[in-house]
Amino acid sequence: MTASSRDLRLIQHCVRRNGNVASRRTLLEARIDPASIDAACRSGALERLRRGMYALPEADIDQRRAVMAGGRVGCVSALRRVGVWGGLDTAIHIHVPPSASRLHLDEIAALGRSPETRRTDKTFWAEPGPPRVHWQRANAASTRTARSWADDWLADPMSALRQAVLCLDDEHAIAAIDSALRKEVVHAHNLESLFRSLPRRLQRLRVELDPAADSGPESIVRVRMRRAGFVVEPQVGIPGSSDLDLLINGVVGLDIDSRAWHTGEEQISWDYGKTLQSFAFGRPTLRILPHHIFDMWPSTLAAISRAVSDMEDLHRLRRMNRNRSTG
Ligand SMILES: [Zn+2]
Predict the structure, then answer these.
(1) pLDDT digits over 7-16, tens only?
(2) Which one-letter DSSP state was computed for residue 154?
(3) Which of 16, 68, 175, 266 gives the lowest tally of CB atoms within 10 Å of its CB?
(4) Is the pTM for the entire model greater than 0.85?
(5) CA–CA distance from 216 to each of 15, 178, 223, 286 (Å)?
(6) Residue 31 Cα, ligand 1 centroid: separation in angstroms?
C-alpha cells in the first residue's frame, strides 16, 4: 500500500511543524494513521531514525545524531540552535532519560559537521566524535507543564541552560546565562528557579551575570577582567559612535570583535572609525578578536593592563600639573 498524496502531505506538514523530526506518538496524536506512517517510510518521504522516531530529509545533522543515539539535542547544542552562547566544545551534547539503557553512541561518532566547514552563527552543528551524554533527572523532566512542539528531539530551554551551566566552566557558564537572557530564551524571573536547581558551588556565579553583554566573548572578558581586579563597565557610550563593549578602570575601552564568525566590509570600516573616535574622545580603545581571548589570554591581559596603567599614569600626571599651575 502507498500513502495517498493527501496523507503524505499531512505527515510532512506535521513533522515539519515539529521541527523536521517527530515521534510516532506525536504523529498518532495528530490523528495520522499508522499505516500511512509506514507507507511514507517505504516511499522515502519519511526517514526512520530509530524505532518510533521519524525525520524529513531536511532534518539537520545534530537532530539526527541525538535521536539516533537515543536522546534529544540538549545542553550547549540546544542553546546554540537558538543563538545562545554554548562555549567552545565541538562535541554534540545530548540529554537522555534516566531510564535509557540501550544507547547507540558508536553509531553517531563518525557523523557531524565537517571540521573544514567553519562554525558561524548559522552553522552551529557539532563536529564528529563521541557525544557528551547527560542523563536527565526524572524530576527535571516532570517540571514541564505542557508538551512543546520540539519535545521529541530537543531539550527545553531551561533544562538545556541548567545542564550547560553544570557542563561549562565558570566563565562560559556566565556567558551562556547572559546570552540566554539577552536573547530572551529565559527571563530574569526564571533565574530564581534556575539557581535553586543548581548546586551550592555555582550560586556565586549569580552576582557575576550581566545581560548587557553583547556576545559570549564579551561576557568572558568582563568576567576575567573583574576577577583580575579591574573595574569594568559594559556598553559605555562614545559620542558619534556605537557603545564601547567594555570600559576598563574608566580609562581604556575594549571592543570585542567576533569577526572569526561574521564579517563584512561595512562593519570593518565602522569598527576602524569607532577606534579613531575613541582616541579623539580620550578613551583609547583596544580591539580584540576571539583568538586573543581563547588562545593567548596572558599576553592579551598584559597588553590591556599596560594600556590601563599608562593611561592612569597620564591622568595622574595631568592632575598634578593642573594642581601645580593653579596652586
Ligand atoms: Zn553538556
Answers:
(1) 899 999 999 9
(2) B
(3) 266
(4) yes
(5) 33, 8, 11, 18
(6) 35
